[in-house]
Design brief:
The chain is an alpha+beta fold. It has five helices and seven strands; from the N terminus they run αβααββββαββα. It folds into two domains: 44 residues, no CATH class; 146 residues, PH-domain like (Roll). The strands form two sheets. It has a four-stranded antiparallel sheet with strand order 1-2-3-4. The longest helix is centred in the middle third of the chain and has 28 residues.
Length: 221
């Protein structure tokens, strides 16, 4: 073949003319197929990395319920004891100092309202409070007609504390306070929890397990 510039003879597989140095059409072409393959591999890896980042760099597990509960009737033992003491003192006082029919009728009405309010409070809380814990989230739903649902990622939980009164300690019930980075409820109280310390330990161990699964330090968030 001839050089297009000087007309000299050039070998067919030569990349340049031996006389003038002009590049010929025989210059080795870039293997576009290989580049395309490498680009495809790069895109695949990028997408894979993006999925790992979105999932915290770990394989997602199925969400499993670990515990569920509601407001325990034992949480009303303390108020019931208080009402009992007030009722006893009122009965003794009227019997010793008044002892009139009208006073007894008034006392019965007042005590009936007092105990009815106590029973209705327990019924309302039993119907409107729901707790549920999974390996990923803590659910706290309240309300009867209009319900409010709180959802806290267990990985966002920073601290779990238990609050108990004297009578509550006797029956193993209490309130769990959750401190978290949740914007809606950074301090969430879960009252009326039966076997409260076991439940608190379960919440704490669940958040520790989730943080360790994602490769985070316990106090990293």
């Amino acid at each position: 073949m001839k050089c297009g510039k000087c007309g000299g003879q050039v070998a067919e597989d030569a990349a340049f003319c031996s006389k003038c140095g002009t590049p010929t059409n025989a210059a080795p072409a870039v293997d576009e197929a290989d580049d395309t393959d490498e680009a495809g591999i790069g895109v695949t890896r990028a997408r894979s990395n993006a999925r790992r980042i979105a999932s915290g760099g770990v394989t997602q597990k199925q969400e499993t319920e670990l515990w569920s509960g509601t407001f325990s009737p034992l949480a009303m033992v303390g108020p019931a004891v208080g009402c009992g003491v007030v009722s006893l003192v009122a009965i003794i006082g009227i019997a010793m100092f008044v002892n009139e029919t009208t006073a007894w009728i008034v006392l019965l009405i007042v005590l009936g309202l007092l105990w009815s309010a106590l029973g209705l409070t327990l019924l309302y809380r039993r119907m409107t409070v729901r707790y549920r814990l999974t390996n990923y989230r803590l659910f706290h739903d309240t309300g009867l007609l209009a319900r409010t649902g709180n959802r806290i990622e267990v990985i966002d939980v920073d601290d779990v504390t238990v609050h108990q009164g004297l009578i509550e300690r006797m029956f193993g019930i209490g309130t769990i306070r959750i401190a978290s980075s949740d914007r809606t409820d950074p301090m969430l109280d879960l009252p009326g929890i039966e076997d409260v310390r076991t439940v608190a330990d379960l919440i704490d161990s669940t958040r520790r397990a989730e943080r360790q699964r994602r490769g985070l330090h316990i106090e990293a968030i």
